[in-house]
Amino acid sequence: MDRVPESTVATRTTGAGASVVAVDRLAAGKVLRNTYLLLSATLLWSASCAGVSMSLGLPYPGILLTLVGFYGLLFAIGRLRNSAWSVALVFALTGFMGYTLGPILSHYVRVIPNGGSVVMTALGITGVAFLSLSAYAVVSRRSFSFMGSFLFVGSITAFVLGLVAIFFHLTGLSLAVAGLFTLLSCGIILWQTGEIVNGGETNYVLATVTLYVQIYNMFLSLLQLLGLSSRN
């Protein structure tokens, strides 16, 4: 895997416009390949950490510690995004999130009726959704940049509402937020993949983190929705 470049967009002029387009697409393809390689590795690493967390019966660290760990590592990745250290920090982030996922999965398996089936169903839907959305964005080469502002505002709104639902124990709002996060995750996967394909995102580390977080959010949101359905 190549070292994170400052920019992989071709800037040198060529004799023909078609050559510039070809070079740009080659650079975008390189970013896309590196993103999927790193994403695959971090998903496997995160799943391994979740499995270890489950087998050891580790406790959930709590919402505050989870947020501090997540945003602290996210800030560090952003600051060192053009350094080789950023890759190590991505594994630290995804490993930490895998650890936090372990106790949640243990709860679903032990407490929810057919909990194992619920977990596998949520995982399957998440996988199919990600592959389908990514394939559409790559094949169509459409730009989804027009969705950026809406997705940003929607994510902030969902995050705040999610905190309200947690601290005030509002089950109905929590389910609504889970549904909203599922839709937002789909939109952000389309947007981020479109940015990579069209040269708008040139840093595969940042792209990997964005896609990983959406997969994580979608999986947890589907777990919550399917878990309630199983209980009923």
Give a written overview of the molecule.
The protein is globular. It contains 7 helices and no strands. The chain has 232 residues and is mainly α. It has one domain (17-231). 80% of the residues lie in helices and 0% in strands. 33% of the residues are buried. The protein has helices at 17-56, 63-79, 85-111, 115-140, 148-167, 171-197, 204-231.
List keywords for this structure.
disordered N terminus; 80% helix; 0% strand; mainly alpha; 232 residues
Brief summary:
Helices cover 80% and strands 0% of the residues. The protein is mostly helical and 232 residues long.
Spatial extent as radius of gyration? 19 Å
Unreliable spans are 2-14
The CA-CA distance between the termini, in Å, is 47 Å
In round numbers, the mean pLDDT is 90
Which overall shape is indicated by the principal axes computed on the Cα atoms? Answer: globular
Number of domains: 1
Class computed from helices, strands and strand pairing: mainly alpha
Topology:
Layout: H1 17-56, H2 63-79, H3 85-111, H4 115-140, H5 148-167, H6 171-197, H7 204-231
